[in-house]
Design a protein that fits this description.
alpha+beta; Arc Repressor Mutant, subunit A; 319 residues; seven-stranded mixed beta sheet; Jelly Rolls; 2 domains
């Protein structure tokens, strides 16, 4: 029987964020197992539909996101990039990276199950494993919204899963691709959790009980008509102190955070083709459908009707 750690049993509100982490749905896949030659570089385009990631298997190189400053990475580092973020990987700063599709064509790489890789003899020669993950509701999920554009560095908690990925790739057997993809799901989730323990909603609950109490209640009752005065009273501090501390902790004002949590709930509701826009609005705290649609479009970039239409199109009726 599973039991909760002491810090969770002492702080029951943490279960609210635990349930939030459990709503993250990730489907990962390897794109390429790449060996960076001396004086070479590869560019990976941003994709608004996918979270990109890489794992440094051996050696070291430099990485830059969206033409930002270069950062050195080395064996054991794991990097995750939010949807839409482009990144470059080069062995020497100043080199012009080659687009990944061009690089694959030039290298005449072997290909199996959609994954490209370099073989040296019968051994997989790899500097980095490049992959991508489709994350449901990445634009609205509070955990993903709290992440920076990129997470780069060691991730001890994901180490075992990533080592298992390398072992599986080094001697592929029937079913290896599925096993690798599921291991990568675990690695991505562990990296996100490791970061979230220091920031975002989970970090606030772990390290700031007053603000954390409010955050947990917002997630428990997103449709409630939250006011600044009520939230400050729940935290047990003044309104001005609460508003400042909340913004410093979560990077956004309390009212904006409530809206984002509501839109995440609405997106989940609208993924059910039986739920109307009016019902999703009401269950997300909006009596006015027009106000709901305006907020939904602002947060997600699309209309609730479009989300619902997509859900209806994906809905398959079993006969």
């Amino acid at each position: 029987m599973l039991t909760s750690p002491d810090y969770m049993s002492d702080r029951p509100e943490i279960w609210q964020i635990d349930s939030l982490l459990n709503t993250i749905e990730v489907k990962s896949e390897v794109v390429a197992a790449i060996h960076l030659l001396t004086d070479s570089g590869v560019s990976f385009p941003g994709d608004i539909e996918f979270v990109k990631f890489f794992y440094v298997a051996e050696g070291s190189f430099f990485v830059s996101t969206d033409s930002g400053p270069w950062q050195r990475v080395q064996a054991g580092d794991f990097a995750i990039f939010r949807p839409g973020v482009r990144y470059d990987a080069v062995t020497l700063i100043g080199l012009e990276p080659v687009p990944i599709d061009v690089w694959i064509a030039r290298m005449n790489m072997a290909c199996q199950s959609g994954m490209h890789y370099v073989l040296e003899g019968d051994r997989l020669r790899t500097s980095l494993i490049s992959g991508r993950a489709h994350v449901r509701d990445a634009r609205t999920h509070p955990v993903w919204r709290s992440l920076p554009a990129s997470l780069i560095g060691p991730c001890p908690t994901a180490g075992n899963a990533l080592k298992a990925v390398m072992e599986e790739l080094s001697r592929p057997l029937p079913g290896s691709q599925t096993i690798v993809n599921r291991l990568l799901d675990i690695a991505v989730m562990q990296a996100v959790r490791q970061h979230s323990e220091q920031s975002g909603a989970l970090g606030v609950i772990l390290h700031d009980p007053e603000i954390g109490r409010v955050v947990a209640e917002i997630h428990r009752q997103p449709a409630h008509a939250w006011t600044l005065a009520e939230m400050a009273r729940l935290a047990g501090i003044s309104r001005s102190h609460f508003a400042e501390r909340f913004r410093n902790r979560l990077g956004q004002p309390p009212a904006e955070y409530v809206t984002n949590v509501r839109m995440h709930r609405a997106a989940r509701l609208l993924s059910n083709p039986d739920v109307t826009v009016a019902e999703a609005a009401a269950k997300s705290g909006y009596a006015n459908e027009a106000a709901f649609s305006k907020a939904y479009r602002r947060v997600t970039g699309g209309s609730p009707g479009r989300t619902r239409s997509r859900a209806r199109g994906n809905h398959v009726v079993a006969i």
